[in-house]
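DM from R.C. (forwarded with permission)

"hey, sorry to bug you on a friday — could you get me a structure for this? deadline for the figure draft is monday and I only need the backbone to look sensible"
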Amino acid sequence: MVIVGAGQGGLQLAESLRSEGWTGPIRLFGEEPYAPYNRPPLSKAVLCGDQSADHLTIRGPDFFAKKAIELSTGTRVTAIDRAAREVVLADGGRVAYEGLALATGSRARTLPLPGADLDGIMVLRTLDDAEALCRRMAEARAIAVVGGGFIGLEVAASARKFDREVTLIEALPRLMARAVSPAISDWYADLHTRRGVRLLLSTGVTGFAGVDGRVTGVETSAGPIAADLVIVGVGVIPDDALARACGLDCDRGVIVDDFSRTSDPTIVALGDCTARRLPDGTLRRLESVQNAVEQAKSGAARLMGKERPFTATPWFWSDQYDVKLQMAGLSAGADTSVTLGSPEEARFSLLHWRDGRFVGCDSINRPADHMAARKLLDRGTDLTAAEAADPAFDLAARARAG
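My reply, with the result:
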């Protein structure tokens, strides 16, 4: 079995193959020079200098030896020969496969604007990115963050720990617009403003200014913003180049089903590089650790001739300052919401309904609510807004009751 991509999803697939009973060779190829590591801390603990690379490693050498998983770091796969069932390496070597898994992840999206190649304009996707950005952040005076999604906001929060002047620029009228409800967006806008971040919403970026090849500012629809360090956090692009080149079906990612199957029965795909085809024919992209891990389990089963569909409720999280946001379900398009707890005390949850159906929960510093909501959503429990609005309502008790 050959796995291309040594992130958390690729590692999980290798582990799951052994759990499913595969006793043959497993080759795990990673383009980065590191063993599989946790990415979520990159924009927080690593960026602030609170956590070193050693603490990010998921499995040590003993694990790979015990499981007989051959890990090749710093190795790029350049092509897939489906007819020969081989992958081609950058050095010209070829490795045969019985089953192949693509866990190639995604690349940070950049802005093709005037001045985008100036020194001091950076993205955050890899460990090398985080360590370089940590060094530059310690030296910067004024920092501009382009993008008000999870990465942009987490970077802004980390930058404020350096007591730097921080301006965050978001093209849409609210923060995290793809992921959370307007009420959560507003609450986070207030949080960041109180913590000293200057927010510019509904503001487009038109270019970057610089002197002697070094960035000095951001040109925006609201006027110029001075900055000697700019972090661009405007989303990711699925890394589906290998899949496209070998003729797999792709559309904003490698198209897979609930079993992680691609259009080739010998190849599965998982994680950020994929787009999952739903029963109604639409495609869904989910960029999260949970998605990668669960698709890896499904993909390993599929390579073993079994079927283990990924049907769990999607969930996500984001740490900003001392606030943990946890999301269960997909609340986009919700038409009814009920608040539990106290927004003023930064401990509350918003439950969401769409057309009378319970579809999601956004929790701020209420982890018990998050876990309870996941259980209810997984079971498809018929929770009503009227029930949740009762002052005596207890979400955790409701989840225990079924």
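R.C.: lifesaver. Residues 289-303 form the longest helix (15 residues).
me: no worries. The two ends are 41 Å apart (CA to CA).
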